[in-house]
Amino acid sequence: MSVEGAADTREATAAGSPPSPAGALPADEVVEMYRRMVRIRLFEQAASKLYADTEVPGFVHLSIGQEATAVGACWHLRDDDAITSTHRGHGHCLAKGLDMTEMFAELMGREGGTCSGRGGSMHIADPRLGILGANGIVGAGLPIITGAGTAAQIRGNGGVAVGFFGDGAVAQGMFHESVNLAAVWDLPVVFFCENNHYSEFSREEDQTRAGLALRAVGYGVRYESVDGNDVVAVAELMQRLVGELRAGAGPVIVEADTYRWHGHYEGDPIRYREAEELAAWKLRDPLVVARARLADLGVDAEVADGIDREVEAEVRAAIDAARRSPFPDPADLLDFVWVESDDTPEQVPEKGEVFKTMDAVREALTYELENDPTVFVAGIDVGRGGNVFGLTRGLADRFPGRVRDTPISETAIVGGAVGAAMAGMRPVVEVMYMDFIGVCLDALMNQAAKLRFMTGGKASLPLVVRTQFGAGRSSGSQHSQSLEALLAHIPGLTVVMPSDPVETYGLLRSAIRSPNPVVFVENRLQYGMKAPRPNADHLIPLGKARIVRPGRDVTVVTWSRMLQEVLAAATEVAAEGIEVEVVDLRTIAPFDRATVLESLRRTRRLVIAHEAVMDFGVGAEIAALAANEGFWHLDAPVVRVAPQAMPAPYSPALEKAWLPDRGVIADALRRLMEVGTR
After folding, report:
1. pTM (2 d.p.)
2. pLDDT: is 114 or 208 the higher one?
3. Do residues 524 and 552 share a domain?
4. Is the CA virtual torsion 131, 47, 1, 198 positive or negative?
5. Domain count across the chain
6. What is the Cα–Cα distance from 504 to 481, expressed in whole angstroms?
7. Is there a domain that residue 678 lies in?
8. pLDDT attached to residue 269
């Protein structure tokens, strides 16, 4: 094993442009910088060979040639400062202090890996060291780093957040939303671009017509450029910027000019660039530049040679140790998907004066903001405007800095919640309409839902995304959708849909306290619904359905506002001698299978009623449960009552025909009772 590209320092330095004059950093620091760069270089070379030898499965993206940016950018960071990385993130992790042996084990998919073999090359993370994760989605670390910057700002501890990204990520909407939000909030964030001049297979000039310097002006943030192959230049720039950010300065974009020697991925034939281009960049090898820096500081070349030998031995030992780690036990397959809910019994609420669902939302948020300093609320118009429905009115004045207005940037809002949660906060963010979930689906589907699993449980994701829906008032096809099936199909997300004011209060407080990411879906047609106010400490456990009305003839499973229609239908058919048992599911995912099956065992008939369209919905999952595990209890086919699979109509006449009501449900109950006998 040898240090690729740095074998003949004198020849390479003579052929390339000379390094800039030695800066103010002392020799011992530059020596250590060189050691860390060699560690990255040899780690990456070894990873390449291990991949070629099939010891590393999956994809591998290497950062050979970019060592100086990683080491220089992280040099002045504390353990509690945060970084996010890219799919090419091994160097960042090593520069921030991650254990090499554990990283090799992670690449090999071993239990002793950084993430217990659950993340692999593209998803290494350890929030305990401020490493909030490499990421397989281009640009996805940028919303997360804004969240980490928000956490540091709220704590006021001088923390700094650095988000690494490549030049290709600039084309992502996530880049725009993140930089803009950081600028609006004056967050202590460095957006650090490692410009290696290629976006996968495409040249930089084919991807954008405006450079980062121009973009920075548009966002109203500072811009700095640096020679990304000179670790001392990078470290000196970051020393100044980190100091400024710790003192309260706002965000900055740094563009480091560098180059990756290998292809986009290991195995890439690299047909998109000329060999002469790579050869020219190798003359500015970051290790060669660093050796020249050491020579200027009077450090003998033997010191660097000795480091090369020491790190070679370190890498060999780390690989041997990683190989001794076992593979994960298949019996542990489901580990780290969720934090299991506790067995706190449900409380019987004391009944106070009448309040509304909208009051329940505000009072639940107020309680948690008052009692937990890690809780904050953010979203479009939730601060000064108090939410489009007035749900958060007055909270911004009462909790300054912890109830925040955001730009219209759902990806930055939800992605920021992910980063803030990983940094130890409990964010409650709002997506104004459930229909807008698609705009920020990556932050939910690939980040919030998966990061605990992919980090082997190291990442904590206690966050709530509040949103609302509701058909029946001619809101049209883009403001009426009930999309819980889409969310429930994403393992790792908890999805909650309350049905009345008391449920809203108790479930929202439990959602905020949950260690899992929760999507909390309110129905806007119920914001004015009234009920007796529960006691202030009222909590409802997540994942537990409730029997709202007992009965012996047929079970109806439902949730959210449809519960009121089901109860009305049950009252109507009770006059005809049909006793309906009504189950309010409450938590859609993970749902309470035991309560549904137990009710089915008693009644032997099942109806499922929901506001979402029928096809491929949550109702189909419950029907499958009845067919698979409750088959011998069934005396009749399972019946689903739901809208037809089509966009929500706008015209009141069409919407009424499309959306089932209590009359449709009552007719379904009557028909079902005519089928079969006990």
Report:
1. 0.93
2. 114
3. no
4. negative
5. 3
6. 20
7. no
8. 77
Of the pLDDT bands very low, low, confident and very high (cuts 50, 70, 90), residue 2 is low
Q: What is the pLDDT of residue 476?
A: 87
Q: Which of 262, 296, 320 is the last residue of a domain?
A: 320
- Please give the Cα distance from 594 to 545 (Å, whole number): 9
In a domain, 567, yes or no: yes
Contacts of 573 (CB under 8 A, 6+ apart): 580, 666, 669, 670
Helix, strand, or coil here: 377?
strand
Catalytic residue at 274? no
Are 172 and 42 in a shared domain? Answer: yes
User: Taking CA 128 as the corner, what is the angle to CA 126 and CA 130, rounded to the nearest 5 degrees?
Assistant: 75
Positions of E strands within 77-153: 82-84
Cα dihedral 596→597→600→602 (10° resolution): -110
Does residue 348 surpass a pLDDT of 90?
no
Band of the pLDDT at 202, cuts 50, 70, 90? low
pLDDT band at 37 (very low <50, low <70, confident <90, very high): very high
- CATH number of the domain that 175 lies in? 3.40.50.970
Same-domain check for residues 136 and 240: yes
Using one digit for the tens of pLDDT, what is the confidence trace for 126-145?
999 999 988 888 888 999 99
Which residues contact residue 286 at a Cβ distance below 8 angstroms, ignoring those fewer than 6 apart? 37, 65, 66, 67, 68, 229, 230, 231, 258
What is the Cα–Cα distance from 447 to 425, expressed in whole angstroms? 16
Q: How many residues does the chain have?
A: 678
Would you give the distance in Å from CA 30 to the centre of its chain?
36
Among 236, 363, 368, 410, the active-site one is: 410
As beta bridge partners, residue 173 has none
What is residue 609's three-state secondary structure? strand
Residue 653 phi, psi dihedral angles, 5° rounding: -65, -45
Give me the domain span that covers residue 479.
354-532
Q: What is the pLDDT of residues 225-246, one digit of tens each?
A: 999 999 999 999 999 999 999 9
Q: Record the tokens describing residue 167, joined without a space.
A: 């030049």
Residue 158 region by backbone torsions, left for phi larger than 0, else alpha for psi between -120 and 50, else beta: left
Say what the pLDDT of residue 278 is.
74
- Over residues 81-90, the mean pLDDT reads 93
Strand 530-532 and strand 354-356: the pairing is antiparallel
Banded model confidence at residue 10, pLDDT cuts 50, 70, 90: very low
Is 573 within 8 Å of 666 (Cβ atoms)? yes
Neighbouring C-alpha atoms within 13 Å toward the C-beta of 595: 21
With pLDDT > 70 as the criterion, what percentage of the chain qualifies? 94
Same domain, yes or no: 261 and 304: yes
Instruction: Check which CATH number belongs to the domain holding 629 and give it.
Output: 3.40.50.920
CB atoms within 10 A of CB 264: 20
Q: Is 65 left (phi over 0), alpha (psi -120 to 50) or beta?
A: left
Residue 19 lies inside a defined structural domain of this protein: yes
Q: What angle do CA 398, 404, 405 make, to 5 degrees?
A: 125
455 contacts: CB under 8 Å, gap ≥ 6: 115, 118, 119, 123, 125, 126, 127, 133, 336
d(CA 312, CA 42): 7
- Burial of 74-112, coded b for 16+ CB within 10 Å and e otherwise, reads bbbbeebbbbbbbbbbbbbbbbbebbbbbbbbbbbbbbb
Q: Are residues 224 and 75 in the same domain?
A: yes
Asked if the model's pLDDT at residue 341 lies above 80, the reply is no
Catalytic choice (92, 479, 538, 610): 479
Do 519 and 596 lie in a common domain?
Answer: no
565 is catalytic: no
